[in-house]
Amino acid sequence: MIRIVRFIDRFSTFVGQAFAWLIVILTVHVCWEVAARYLLNQPSAWAFDLQMMYYGILFMMAGAYTLAKNGHVRGDILYGFLPPRVQAGLDLTLYIVFFFPGVIALVWAGWYYAGYSIAIREHSSLMADGPPIYPFKAFIPIAGAVLLVQGVAEAMRCLLCLRRGAWPSREEDVEEVDVDKLKEMVHVKDEDIARLDRYVTPGEPRQ
Length: 207
Known about the structure:
Pfam families: DctQ. GO terms for molecular function: transmembrane transporter activity. The protein is mainly α. It has one domain. The protein is about 65% helix and about 0% strand.
């Protein structure tokens, strides 16, 4: 079972990291549009719609990746104080009652929603001759399916915790900088930083 969980985690990570490059495309597009608008006086009529689609695809396709890294927001008031088996039982119940029905509904409805959009070659209605939006809507059931597969892995992770009494480890990935850990890695203390601050803080006498 743990091999299946690891495989699904790696798949979700690959998908999330691949679509993360959209943020680079979005940044370049926004910069180009600003330059075209204010320097060349040639704004693009499709700019706003395309930027929204870039962000929407990135947001949807990163859902499974975030779930694989346990990065979704959790209302952790008492949860963190519970034993691992109780946490796993609670998580498994919530996955069965809320997660799976909701995501299955997303995939089911998204399939018909995207199919209708593709069938009529739907374009944006914000302007005349707007950009096609059916490629964007096609990602709705795809993102839901990837999220559903990752949900299966999370349910398996709960079962493993119920069996072993401890949560299986997750693969490490990029995280926000932990200042305390960084200090330990480079062997720097707060007193050392305070001494160096004297050389960069104006108005303080040097010793």
